[in-house]
């Protein structure tokens, strides 16, 4: 056995060992204010967003946020709002707070 094997075995054993029982480990974590939704994108969407993120010089989540901010300028709020299934979050929704967009620029669903 050489030094590398010793370090490898030490790392494996450290990962197998149960965490020490301390007061910190027995406390429950506070629940987040909301449970974030983690969407599963298609491979094409992921590749496209990654390249757009590189072009914008920001992270992929920030890029998705930028894209979401643009949606009210592309889709008619009336159409989106009429199909909404969560009327309790209207104050947070970009379609309610966005400036009106000229009718010729809308994409109707």
Explain what you see.
This protein has 109 residues and is mainly alpha-helical. The chain has a domain at 40-82. The protein is 49% helix and 0% strand. The protein is built from six helices and no strands. The chain has helices at 3-16, 23-26, 43-56, 60-70, 77-82, 94-97. α3 (43-56) packs across α4. The protein is globular and about 35 Å long. The model has no long low-confidence stretch (mean pLDDT 74).
Largest sheet: none
N-to-C order of helices and strands:
HHHHHH
Mean pLDDT across the residues is 74
Helices, by number, come to 6
Shape: globular
**N- to C-terminal separation?**
66 Å
Report the helical percentage. 40-55%
Number of strands: 0
Assembly classification: single chain
Structural class call reads mainly alpha
Question: What's the gyration radius in Å?
Answer: 24 Å
The portion of residues forming beta strands comes to under 5%
Uncertain segments are none
Topology:
Layout lengths: L2 H14 L6 H4 L16 H14 L3 H11 L6 H6 L11 H4 L12
Helix pairs in contact: 3-4
């Amino acid at each position: 056995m050489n030094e590398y094997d010793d370090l490898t075995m030490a790392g494996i054993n450290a990962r197998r060992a149960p965490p020490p029982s301390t007061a910190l480990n027995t406390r429950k974590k506070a629940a987040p204010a909301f449970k974030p939704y983690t969407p599963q994108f298609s491979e094409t969407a992921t590749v496209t967003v990654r390249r757009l993120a590189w072009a914008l010089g920001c992270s992929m989540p920030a890029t998705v946020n930028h894209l979401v901010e643009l949606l009210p300028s592309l889709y008619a709020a009336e159409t989106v709002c009429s199909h909404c299934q969560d009327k309790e979050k209207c104050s947070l929704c970009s379609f309610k707070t966005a400036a009106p967009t000229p009718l010729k620029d809308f994409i109707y669903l």
